[in-house]
Fold M14 family metallopeptidase.
Amino acid sequence: MLKTTTAFSIFAFNLLLMTTAYSQDLAFSKQLFDTYDAYRDSALTHRRFKQADILPLIDQLKSDSRFEVTKVGESVEKRPIQLIKVGNGPRKVLLWSQMHGDEPSATMALFDIFNLLRTDGPFEDFKKQLLAETTLYFVPMLNPDGAERYQRRNALDIDLNRDALRLQSPESVLLKGLQQSLKPDFGFNLHDQNTRYSAGPTPKQATISFLATAYDEARNINPVRERSMQLIVGMNRVLQQFIPGGVGRFSDEFEPRAFGDNIQKWGTTLILIESGGYPNDPEKQFIRKLNYVAILSGLQAIATDSYQAESRSEYITIPENERYLFDVLIRNAQIMRGGKPVTVDLGINRYEVNVGNAATFGYRSTIDDLGDLSTFFGIEEIDATGLTLVPGKIHPQPLRSLTDLKKYKLDSLIQQGVTTFRLATPSRATTHLSPVHLLQPTTTPVRPVQTGRIPTFVLRRGNQLRYVFVNGFWLDVSTGDNKLATGVIE
């Protein structure tokens, strides 16, 4: 009986210690979240920045003796790639971002982290411990050529995250060289993912997703991978405060060409973070903030070894990423087929199109699915019960040029169901700022609505107009709720 009581007392004591540690971690992350604006780098406000925008920020670090900035290589097009070192502790951590040029959320967060490490404030004890217990190595932009074009691949059109074996790109050679020479204990592989991933089969966007990458086909778990799972369990707990139900787990199917899988195989505990979508955050500024909190919380767990108290079994409880979301889901619309009414749901997705030098963008949307979509969800949803979907009106007067649009009161025309103009002469553009659908001189408008086509139409009850859709964006005529955005040229 005494032994049983003693064992229970030890268990209760350990549970108390764990609960106290969890409370402290949550309080620390809440403080990071609440004070974030003091450290947010104001030079980065949009996600389509280029290397030229961050080089001055990197140069600023050179004036701080705590930071060591080194050029460690060049991209295909000879853009410099920098390694930023801070700290002198025994636990080595390598963090790299933007190995895909169009995945910049974490890059912004890294510069926010640099600001915290450089600025006096309420985190002095944390910084002192972090820099004494860890040595941090950052590569803020591994693929500057891709960032220049805002594209996934590098200037050789190679996906760096599928080049860990052949090493055909200088950026890939550089990353493997850093892992092999530094031999980091931990690695943070920082990405963005499709904004339409859901956290399990739910309407919740997977705003942040984690992955403890597999190192073999069987997805075995050794101590290296177990540490990944333990760290992710703690970071998930932290983020649930701010995005409850909005954290996903990326598929751990083994990809033998990927850096994450191979770096785990080469002995570095690898934490992959994917930044997804969040409502009304097109520039991913809130998601940037979540990266800042998650990464710093993970680094604290590494500096203190607190992750060792986490149970890897909780990793599997994080819902896996699923594809249950459309950008817009219209439910129960009525369309006419063969003279008969048919009730359908429409799943609409909006795709970015680079404009100019890729510093800005427009949209080209498509109807990606049509039919019974009752098992899916929309980031935006419209209940079209009792409404009939019909084509919008085409304005009778052709446009000689895009500037002719200025002659018209577009708001008034759209309220009347006019969605489309025809161009008198061809245009090389594919998108434009005015929320109307333009047809090239030889383009035939699609009637009736079809999958794979641009969603421009109206929803009405009898003769009364309710919704006007142009290029996948919409106006609610009855309420005035206006989500119309960029137009499209077809």
Summary: The longest strand covers residues 340-355. The chain has a mean pLDDT of 95. The CA atoms of residues 145 and 154 lie 6 Å apart. Residues 2-34 form the longest helix (33 residues).
